[in-house]
Amino acid sequence: MRKIIAALQVSLDGLIEGPNEELDWVDSWEDPYDIIGKVDAFILGGRMYPGYEQYWQAVVDNPKGILPFTSRPATAGEIEYAEFARRTPHVVLSGKLQTSAWRNTSIVRNLEEVRQLKEAPGGDMHAVGGATLVSSLMNAGLVDEIRLVVQPIVLGAGKPLFKDVKERHALTLLKALPWKAGAVALWYRVPGGRG
Predict the structure, then answer these.
(1) CATH code of the domain containing 92
(2) Does residue 150 lie in a domain region?
(3) 18: domain range?
(4) Cross-strand bridge partners of residue 105
């Protein structure tokens, strides 16, 4: 069975975006989770996917250009991630989204379809986000690992990562290491998961 790894950047107060959907507090969207070349599918929620697709396609199209959402050029790590994302299949869980621009994207309508993908042969899958998707996957017992990069900022208000998780999960720490600019990478196994 494949492993689903939810990997996201969060503020010190557990938020994934500011009160007005700000993401300017994240210095880079490169891969601090060690997933490039180790997963063979990405899972995203329907609300997050359009912006994700726009951002990474902009990196692929013009790696030295000014990017949407960040207003800066891509880092070397982001260019590497964009190339990996461009050629890796994406699964979008959405009841509303009808189409995507990326050819390697399929849309599924319910968690049972995600469960079937997890049980199919293949490599591990990266649950990119957002918060509703990660909570839904955790509530369904589908997340095996959580990998977070905790940024050294308190946003005070915004979207909490685990707001919709319905029950307590006592996680097992697998790894903790310093990251860039005072951030910390934390990897956890979820109870019952294959971490």
Answers:
(1) 3.40.430.10
(2) yes
(3) 4-189
(4) 90
pLDDT (tens digit, 0 to 9) for every residue of the chain, 195 residues total? 899 999 999 999 999 999 999 988 998 888 889 999 999 999 999 999 999 999 999 999 999 999 988 889 999 999 999 999 999 999 999 999 999 988 899 999 999 999 999 999 999 999 998 999 999 999 999 999 999 999 999 999 999 999 999 999 999 999 999 998 899 999 999 987 665
The domain total for the chain is 1
pTM (predicted TM-score):
0.93
Cβ burial, residue 5 (10 Å; 0-12/13-18/19+): buried
Say if 195 falls within a structural domain.
Answer: no
Q: Hey, which residues does 127 pair with through a beta bridge?
A: 6, 43
Look at residue 108 and tell me if it is in a domain. yes
Residue type, 129: G
Residues in the chain: 195
